[in-house]
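Batch job 17 of 40 flagged for manual review because the log was empty.
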Amino acid sequence: MLKDILSNKINEKGNFKRRGVVPIFSDIEVMALSFTAECLSIDSENYLFSKLISKYTDEFENIISRRQYNDRRKLLFEKTEQVAKVNGIRA
């Protein structure tokens, strides 16, 4: 869904334009994980990542650390909020 919504703003790897190293865990994956945690009412990043690492390692082969996730989520906050408001996820 995020790929369709952001198709004209992201590159083929799912990242917004930026300088430096291209992340393996894409921007839209960070945003999708953030939305998923919110929808599941998971408000603890420690809990989220303990579940991901213990039960879903095969599904997330390029998973980043909790610290990296938190840093990237903060950088993507405005874009995430825009997507949420436009698509009626948040008021």
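Reviewer: the log was empty due to a logging misconfiguration, but the result itself is present. The chain has a mean pLDDT of 89. Unflagging and moving on to job 18.
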